[in-house]
Amino acid sequence: MAAIFAGGVINAPEAWAGSLSSAYVTDPLTGVALDGMDPVSYFTEGEPRQGLPDYEYDWQGVAWYFVNAANRDAFARSPATYAPQFGGHSAMGLARGYLSDGNPRVYLLVAKRLYLFYSAANRDAFAMAPAAAIDSARANWVRIVPTLQASRDPAGPDLDPMQIRP
What we know:
This protein is of the alpha+beta class. It folds into 2 domains: 1-25 and 84-152, no CATH class; 27-81, no CATH class. Helices cover 32% and strands 18% of the residues. The chain has a 3-stranded antiparallel β-sheet. The longest helix is centred in the C-terminal third of the chain and has 22 residues, at 130-151. The radius of gyration is 14 Å and the shape is globular. The two termini are 19 Å apart. Mean pLDDT is 82; it is low at 1-21 and 153-166.
């Protein structure tokens, strides 16, 4: 079984709002992924750290913030390694067949991949059987991504479900 590391605490669900009309969850006001958290820090610091606009990198048409140039450069070399799975949508929500935003402060690292969750309860449910949840989430993700494509900006890039790291 893969090692699982839990982190973060949930804020009031109504306080966290992302964008359900995109393959990537972004802050609706800034357009930044992970609520501005540095995706590399989940792996190197053991917890997410707030990134800075000074170290911004654009990947897949989305802005990502980092705490320093080294983390930005590591992400640029291998973004699929550090980006959250399923575009930052809740992995347990997807496993159950629906789309919801993941909260960057409620996460697990499973088999060197970052998974976000809407709530701590969803994270805990996922952790009870991560392999089965990942399989279900992948199957639903492939089905749901085309609906996201239909609602996206027509000028945006085409989305390949497998490119968004299921």
